[in-house]
Every structure is written in C-alpha cells, then in structure tokens.
C-alpha cells in the first residue's frame, strides 16, 4: 500500500481491528520511509448482476426501481415498510447468491411476483396483470383462482 504522504510503497500494518458490525477491517499503517501513520479500511465489495432486458439492452441493477415496482403494486395496501424492505433484501440476496454476472429481467419479475404473493395477494394480482400482460378477464380469473388454491392448501 502506498503512503498517502510520500507515496513510498513500503508501509507496515501496526494494528488491525474488525468493526463492531463485522463488515469492515480497520488497519493502522506506518510508512517505512517518512514514518507517518494512516488508516485504511477493507470492506466487502459485492456487485449486483447486470440486468438483460427483453430487447437485449443491459442496465445496472437499480434497487430504487425494484422498490418503485413493489410500492406501485402495494399502493394503498396494508403492508409495512419493514416488510417491503425485507422483500427487497431477499430479492437482492437471491441475485447475489446466484453468482451470475447477468440476469434476465424476467427472472427479477418472477422474484418480485413470489415476494408479492407472500406479502399481499391483491398486490400480486396487480403486478401479475401488468407483468404477464393480461389481455382479458379470463386471465385475471385464472390468477385469482391460483391464489385461492394456494390459500386453501396447507403450508408445508
């Protein structure tokens, strides 16, 4: 690590501490050339996969867009902000744990539908109607019947 003062390449770690949260390592360093001390931090750098849209274009993952989609479907529904945050966190974790560098947008849509189905059935139907491009009442009825069947089957 270069010294920020004299730019000498030889520095020595004199103290290492892990943050209380456990997600950062703080290192005190001393320059062997000018003898000045400085602090560096190490953090995990996770990168979300790039989203491949239906038209083939690529875009960076944007959690604000994910939140906006969920909030639109959940508009005027009795779902807490904490529940929405938890759903977003689960979606992000699934994307990160996949290890994929690129993910098709349809996969994210499926993850959103799964979370909405857990949070609120009405919001799920709202989102599904747009996401799956429902074109007639029969498609709404099928989606409602699907939600109704799941509700009647006991949880495993």
UniProtKB/TrEMBL annotation:
Protein family membership: Belongs to the NrdR family.
Lineage: Bacteria, Pseudomonadati, Pseudomonadota, Betaproteobacteria, Burkholderiales
Gene that specifies this protein: nrdR
Names of required cofactors: Zn(2+)
Domain ATP-cone, residue spans: 49-139
Pfam families hit by this protein: ATP-cone, Zn_ribbon_NrdR
Zn-finger (unnamed) residues: 3-34
Gene Ontology molecular function: ATP binding; DNA binding; zinc ion binding
Keywords assigned: ATP-binding, DNA-binding, Metal-binding, Nucleotide-binding, Repressor, Transcription, Transcription regulation, Zinc, Zinc-finger
Organism of derivation: Noviherbaspirillum denitrificans
GO biological process: negative regulation of DNA-templated transcription
Record text on cofactor binding: Binds 1 zinc ion.
This protein's name: Transcriptional repressor NrdR
Protein role: Negatively regulates transcription of bacterial ribonucleotide reductase nrd genes and operons by binding to NrdR-boxes.
């Amino acid at each position: 690590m270069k010294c920020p003062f004299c730019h000498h390449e030889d520095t020595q770690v004199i103290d290492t501490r892990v943050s209380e949260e456990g997600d950062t390592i703080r290192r005190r360093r001393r320059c062997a050339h000018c003898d000045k001390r400085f602090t560096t931090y190490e953090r995990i750098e996770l990168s979300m996969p790039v989203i491949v849209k239906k038209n083939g274009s690529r875009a960076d993952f944007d959690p604000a867009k994910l939140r906006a989609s969920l909030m639109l479907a959940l508009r005027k529904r009795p779902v807490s902000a904490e529940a929405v945050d938890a759903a977003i966190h689960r979606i992000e974790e699934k994307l990160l744990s996949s290890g994929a560098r690129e993910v098709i947008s349809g996969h994210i849509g499926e993850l959103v539908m799964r979370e909405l189905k857990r949070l609120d059935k009405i919001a799920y139907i709202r989102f599904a109607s747009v996401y799956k491009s429902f074109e007639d009442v029969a498609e709404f009825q099928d989606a409602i019947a699907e939600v109704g069947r799941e509700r009647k089957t006991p949880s495993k």
